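Deviation from plan, reported transparently: JFZ complex.
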Amino acid sequence: RDPRTAWWTQGRFGMFIHWGLYAVPAQGEWFMYASRTPVREYENLAEQFNPTEFNAQAWVALAKEAGMRYIVITAKHHDGFAMYRSKADAFNIADATPFGRDPLKELAEACEEAGVVLCFYYSHVIDWHHPHALHKEHNNTWDYKLEEKRFQEYWEGKAKPQIKELLTEYGRVGLLWFDTAGGLSEEDSKDIVRHVQSLQPDCLINSRVSHYMGMGDFVSKGDNEIGMSGEDARPWETPMTLNQSWGYTTKDQVWKTADTLIRKLVNVIGKGGNLLLNVGPTPQGTIPELSAERLREVGEWTRRNAEA
Ligand code: JFZ
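Because the crystal trials were delayed, the predicted structure below was used instead.
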């Protein structure tokens, strides 16, 4: 087994954070697509995004209290909005909002201090903001025409430069969590893996980087899907929600109980997998209390049962 994955398999439990401009309308991270909101209108949401209650240390402290050893945060989700200061694209939290700060920089510092491994989610194929991003199914067809797409302009002009920024300006990045690769060619899939490895050779890549078989250092199962030990040569994880959504939403209030979460954690870890448990922070920059209290209970259970 690849020694590069040791920290991750031994870490077992991580915090997934879906946080972006979509927190403002508060209907989940697919809001722009579901509502077919035009790019210009969606950009206006940035003026209202001012998460002044964001406190990187508090988030990292909560992760630690829950027993999590790493954090995977959405650096850019499908809406194309970068949650850090990006020179490659001005549609980002530092340049387009009154907030003006770089939360990923602050998280990188807080993680370093606390000994938590910081990792980034990056939507490398779906991007509803960029005119040339092209996915197999889920494109912004209300602003852009499919036949006018020149994918390489997006790939070389935004995706790869932003991945480079993430891997050169935030210290060690434990892993890059790619997603929804539908339509990405085998050549471009290999290109992105080489790109990451040339910048940070030890940075892990998940299997959702490509639909071509066997790519990536570990397997991300389907959402909330629990794998079985030994079914793949590679280590695997279950990405899981606390309610039924990833991004912040006021609509979904179907929450897993702390008791259920503890059983899921034990079940996944017992089968040899990792659990990546999600929170969806608010537009004010806080982790919803219903989420935080569940995570604290999970941590409490683990500590109570650590000495046997
Ligand atoms: C994707 C995203 O579209 C979604 O917004 C979220 O970020 C989630 C973690 O990942 O959605 C998926 C991708 C793959 C599966 C399910 C949802 N799958 O393989 O079951």
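The CA atoms of residues 45 and 282 lie 14 Å apart. We consider this an acceptable substitute for the interim report.
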